[in-house]
Each structure stands twice: as C-alpha cells, then as structure tokens.
Amino acid sequence: MGSSTPVAVHNFTTWKAQIAMLLHGHDLYGHLDGSTPSPPTTPTLNLPWDQLHTSFANKSQTRIFSLHHHLSRVPKDTKSIVEYLREIRSLSDELATAGSPVANEELVVKILSGLGPEFREISAAIRARDSATSYEELLDKLLDHEIFLKHEDLKKTTTQVIAAVAQRVTNSSPTSRNN
C-alpha cells in the first residue's frame, strides 16, 4: 500500500469507506458488523511450535559438542569470505538454537583461526586491537582485504602478461632474427 494518512475528523468518511471496501474485498466485513459469527476458540500455535522445537532443536550434549568441534575446524580454503562466514554463522546459529550460543569474541577467534596465510596480516592487526571486533566489523574488514588481494592478483597477472608480450615482441623483432 502507499502512504497512509492518519484518521481525523476531516477525512473520517473517506477513511471509513476505504476500510469498508477493503474488508468487503477480503470477505471480512461480516466480522466488523456482527453478521458473521466469531470462530470457536482455537488453540494457540505454542504447542505445535514446542513440538517442532523439541523434534528438531536437538539439545543433546553430543550435538553441541559436535557443533563446537566442527566450528573450531572450519577452514576458509578456496571459499570466498562470504561463503566462509556463512558456514561459520550457520554453525553458530545452530549452537544458539541448541542452547549453547557462541560469544562474539569466540566467534571472531574461530573465524580468524580458519583463515589462510593470505589473511595473516589483517588477522594479526585484528588480534592486536585493544577493543573487541564485532562480527559485522570483521566481515567488512575481511571483505575489503579479499578485494585488495584480488586487485593485487590482477596487477600481478597483468604485469606477467605485459612481460610475456614484450618478450615475444623482442624475440620476433628483425634484429633478433639476424643473430
């Protein structure tokens, strides 16, 4: 819907007509004027919700231990920062659901521990800070560093291509053929 105007004395009639049309359009007007009987009292969704939670949110110590173990051993490898942090965050969320939430500081340590050597400098800088780094701030810094690394790789590749082309041009010049 578009913007709404608060109901006031000068626009009540228009407002009432619009609401009545909306309720008629959704077959709900009878509940407003009393012509449709109220539905019988229905149970809340609390019981089914609790049953689902009990079935799927396994709170066993074995499950919690397994999740913590997996979280401490997730390597970045060839994954992008977004993929790596998505996996870490998923495990962290599962732990929270199982009743064992991971503190921000612990999450940051786990993330930094799984990074490869190309992230050594930024990891050391983050560890050396006096203040705690939030997950969101860490995400921003790691994404920036990943972009920096890709830019450096692109510069290195471009330099290698230029050197190869220059070498080929030098080798195919008329003076090099006469030798």
UniProtKB/TrEMBL annotation:
Pfam families: Retrotran_gag_2. This is Uncharacterized protein. The gene is LOC107796538.
